[in-house]
Amino acid sequence: MARITLDGFIEAFAAYLIKRGRNMVRLNDPDVRDGLYRVYLFLDGFAGVDGSEDKDLRRSIVNIRNVFRPSPIGSFDRFETLLRAKQVYLTDHPNPYYQDIVIKLPAEMADRIVAGLDDATSDLARDSVDRYLAAG
């Protein structure tokens, strides 16, 4: 199985959010924090599997899992940074909604991104989004 790149996973995660009708991540929302923690636990389960699995795949899942690991104060800074890097605009003035990350990705582009994913990335991103959305 191929490695799953961190950039590719974040793009797939955002595309699946769009496909599920979510174009915003509100970082101060307790449900969002719970959802991101659920993704961390889900990925942690994959990363801890021993056996004859592909080591490159496991390494890439560990890297992705670490993005979703909460900081000691409960924030998800690494995830926030990577998702903000996917935004196509920069904020050049004070933004009262800075904690809201808006994903400006047309549904058609999200469909194309998902259609172009390999099975491993698609399954991992889709299942991660399912766990994220299960929080509320």
The total count of strands amounts to 2
Distance between the termini: 33 Å
Radius of gyration equals: 15 Å
What share of residues is helical? 55-70%
Number of helices: 6
Structural class: mainly alpha
Quick one: biggest sheet?
2 strands, antiparallel
Low-confidence stretches: none
When the domains are counted, the total is 1
In spatial order, strands of the major sheet run: 1-2
Structure notes:
By secondary structure, this protein is mainly alpha-helical. It has one domain. Helices cover 58% and strands 4% of the residues. It has helices spanning 6-19, 30-47, 55-67, 77-85, 107-115, 119-134, and strands at 24-26, 100-102. Strands 1-2 form a two-stranded antiparallel sheet. It is globular, with a radius of gyration of 15 Å. 26% of the residues are buried.
For the structure shown, list the relevant keywords.
globular, single chain, mainly alpha, 6 helices, 58% helix, two-stranded antiparallel sheet, 136 residues
Describe what is shown at a glance.
The protein has 136 residues and is mainly α. 58% of the residues lie in helices and 4% in strands. The chain has one domain.
Q: How is this fold's topology laid out?
A:
Blueprint: H1 6-19, E1 24-26, H2 30-47, H3 55-67, H4 77-85, E2 100-102, H5 107-115, H6 119-134
Antiparallel strand pairs: 1-2
Helix pairs in contact: 1-5, 1-6, 2-3, 2-6
